[in-house]
Amino acid sequence: MSTIESIIRLRGVEKAFGPKEVLRGIDLDVDTGESLVILGGSGSGKSVLLKHMIRLLRPDTGTVEVDGVDLATLSDRQITNFRRRFGMSFQEGALFDSMTVYENVAFPLRRSTKMSRSEIDARVAECLDMVDLEQAGHKLPSELSGGMRRRVGFARSIALEPKILLFDEPTTGLDPVLTAIIDQVIISLRKQLGSTTVTITHDLNSAFRIADRLAMLHGGQIIEIGPPNAFRASTNPFVQQFLAGSAEGPLHDG
Amino acid sequence: MIDRIASFLDNFFLAMGRFAITFWRVMVWTPRPPYDFAQLFRQMVRVGVDSLPVVMLTALFTGMVMALQTFTVLARFDAESYVGSLVALSMVRELAPVLAALMIAGRVGSAMGAELGTMRVTEQIDALEVLATDPFHYLMVPRVWATTLTLPLLVALADLVGILGGYLIAVVLLGANPVTYIDNTYQYMELNDLTSGLIKAAVFGMLLSTIGCMQGYFTRGGAEGVGQATTRAVVLGSISILITDFFLTKILF
Question: What is the pTM of this model?
Answer without folding.
Answer: 0.87
